[in-house]
Amino acid sequence: MHSKVNAERPTVVCVLGMHRSGTSLATRMVQACGFQVPGQALSATADNPEGYSEPRALVRANNRILAELNRHWSDHRPLEEHVRQQVFARWQRRAMRLIGLWLRHHSRLVLKDPRLCLTFPLWRDAAVAHNVNLRVLLVQRDASDVSRSLAARAEIPAFRPAAIVQPERSDLLWWRHVLWAERYSRGLNRQQQTYQQMLAGHLDPLKALLRPWWPDDDAPCALVRSASRAGNAVIADTAQAELGQDLLGLAAREARFDQLRNAFMQVQQRFASLRHRLPPPEQPDLYAAQLLRAYQHAGLAPEHLSGHVIFLSGAPGSRGHIYRVEHSARSLRERGMRVDVVSAAEHVALAPDTRAVVMFRTRADAHLNDLILRCKNSAVPLIYDIDDAVFDSKLMTPRYFDYMRVRSDQAAQWVEGAPLYAHAMQQCDAVIVTTQPLAARAASVHPQVKVVPNGLAPDRLALMPRDQADELIRIGYASGTPTHQKDFAEVAQALAAVLARYPTARLCVLGHLDLDEFPELEAVHGQIEQRPLVDFDALPAELARFDINLAPLQRDNPFCDCKSELKYFEAAAVGVTTIASATPPMCDAIIDGQTGFIARDSGQWQRLLIQLIEQPALRRDCARRARAHALACYGPEARGEWFISVFSALLRDITQ
Predict the structure, then answer these.
(1) Nearest by Cα to 26 from 135, 154, 164, 175
(2) I need a labelling partner for 371 at 20 to 30 A (CA). Which of 178, 471, 618, 640 fits?
(3) Given pLDDT bands bounded at 50, 70 and 90, which one contains residue 233?
(4) Cα–chain-centroid distance for residue 72?
């Protein structure tokens, strides 16, 4: 028996939630309180045997609206606001007419369709125009559970077009629905109910929303017990990811939701030129994993920080110092922190507001030990940053570290230095490295290791003018330091064959490389141009001379496997296509065949070089995508957000 309610004013309850989030169960509970699904509802299926409780007319209208917006139910890309408003304006009268028709038959309606998360402003305004009592139930389920449920659809042939098998793609769609449902429902009478709460029988949010109509016999609770027995939730309540935790609770958190939504739109915009059209939902999205990763760091990065940070650099004249110290220091300054950068030999004065000391590539010695002791006595967190596996004594042999073979006079200092690097790392509270393989190596030295990749500085973003005065095809190799003889050997044989085949092809070697070690290149010596090593500021102009950039690394070498992907994104930033060895960081960075190419043996190096020489359009298209990709993943904003999210989380963990 229902409580007495005001019968003069109709009530509409809108259930908003991501696909596979428990919205059907929530809607059936609303129905148990005397609300009607208007018109004809979607039929029950093997995917949802209890029925979807979705009005066919509403689903059909939402699908047509999304089609006019050039979107699909599985499309997680945000819309430009003016485009959304134009389409909604065209649908305004139809939406009002449809709701008016439904209200003639029922004074209490429940509207549910996951697409409502994206089209809700249209239906909200249409309902308000009819002077209804509008209430909203936001249903949320853990994103990982949603992902598994959407992937399970692929096992049913009839539902494969409605499956999303790629977890990252499902997660992005989850964020799109949850964030926009929250934004569009602000100012309304609303409650948030999680799927896990429903299954556990904790229905306080739902009861609060529907208190005037809640039945005395608690009929909705029986639906929960039935759903649990039916096995609709065999997955235990999983822990939310750190970012997802911020979505629990609506009141007084609107600013945080705004930050998350703005970050989502900004990251999507960075990838927009790469993703004019998404593949069907049952197929993988090549960029989804990197986009989601970028968004997670953007969402976790605080917009403002305070206090003082000191960077202590053990290699102040190196390019690593630029990537690891100067870039990170700039990101902290942009968020309001005071930052000092000093060399490892200088005295470091801790200030009362010093929040951390970051050591880059420093070796343990008496001077450093004194600083570490002062930091520990003052409860100042110590973070170690390193960009090579020079701390691993097992790898400090000529077999793995070719520099020790080329410069045997310096081999002893690398052998002696490895344990000193390792000891300095062990004394710190956490370690930051450049790649996942390097993190795995560092984990044997320190239990707290995080990855922050290298990235581009603001002054590296300009597209360099290219000299088109001749018809030569320049295949470039930027060697840099004299440590890459064995790396270059990976591609030497292929280069010899390609240069012999194409008289207009040229090998441009930038920096140190002893060509005497490669007799196979003697026959094409006249097609080789050696240019001196240039300083860091002049590097983009040199890279822009290349038509094809080479990034070979020695196979089966764990030291090389730890190397950063910077040779890919530095060339990509100036619009040059890269062929790289199949190291884990390169395979993770490059979308093979789209933003660059991965070569796994000499034969593949040769085939890829021939393909790019003979197909200039492919070369240009790949270079265009590579540049957009490099700016999206490794640009100053992306790298800054990644560093800030990791840095702030480490400080929080260390000081708790």
Answers:
(1) 135
(2) 640
(3) very low
(4) 22
User: Do 294 and 259 form a contact (C-beta atoms < 8 A)?
Assistant: no
Where does the pLDDT of residue 52 fall: very low under 50, low under 70, confident under 90, or very high at 90 and above?
confident
**Residue 40: DSSP 8-state:** P
With b for 16 or more beta-carbon neighbours within 10 A and e for fewer, the 162-177 pattern comes to bbbbbbbbbbbbbbbb
Predicted structure pTM score: 0.91
CA–CA gap between residue 646 and residue 433 (Å, rounded):
11
Tokens of 635: 């640009």
d(CA 321, CA 344): 12
Unique residue bearing structure tokens 């569009």: 184
Which tokens hold the place of 220? Answer: 């909705």
List all residues 6 or more positions away from 509 whose beta carbon is below 8 Å from its beta carbon.
Answer: 476, 477, 479, 515, 528, 529, 530, 531
Confidence of residue 6 (pLDDT cuts 50, 70, 90): low
Instruction: Yes or no: say if 12 and 132 are a contact pair by the CB < 8 Å rule.
Output: yes
User: Phi/psi of residue 475, each to 5°?
Assistant: -100, 115
Return d(Cα 175, Cα 200) in angstroms, integer. 24
* Residue among 656, 655, 435 nearest 567 (CA): 435
Ordered DSSP codes for 333-388? HHTT-EEEEEETTS--PPPTTEEEEEEESPPP-HHHHHHHHHHHHTT--EEEEESS
Burial of 490 (0-12, 13-18, 19+ CB in 10 A): buried
DSSP-derived 3-state class of residue 444: coil
Q: ∠564-570-575 over CA atoms, to 5°?
A: 140
CA separation for the pair 27, 209 (Å, rounded): 13
First to last CA, the chain: 52
Q: What string of H, E and C letters represents the secondary structure of 469-532?
A: CCCCEEEEEEEECCCCHHHHHHHHHHHHHHHHHCCCEEEEEEECCCHHHCHHHHHHHHHEEEEC
Q: pLDDT of 7-35, one tens digit each?
A: 568 999 999 999 999 999 999 999 999 99
Please provide the DSSP assignment of 268-316 as one string. HHHTGGG-SSPPPTTS--TTHHHHHHHHHHHHHS-S---SEEEEEES-T
Please indicate whether residue 219 or residue 197 has the higher confidence score (pLDDT).
Answer: 197
Which residue(s) pair with 507 in the sheet? Answer: 475, 528
Ramachandran class of 519: left when φ > 0, alpha when ψ lies in -120 to 50, beta otherwise: alpha
Residue 492 has pLDDT above 60, yes or no: yes
Judge whether residue 368 has pLDDT over 60.
yes
| Span 51-70, average pLDDT | 93
Looking at the DSSP assignment, which residues form a beta bridge with residue 108?
Answer: 11
Residues 129, 468: Cα–Cα separation, whole Å: 63
From residue 248, alpha-carbon distances to 76, 138, 255, 643 in Å are: 21, 11, 13, 25
Q: How far apart are CA 546 and CA 548, in angstroms?
A: 5
Taking the C-alpha atoms of residue 561 and residue 580, their distance in angstroms, rounded to an integer, is 12
Instruction: Please state, in angstroms and rounded to a whole number, the distance separating the CA atoms of residues 144 and 593.
Output: 30
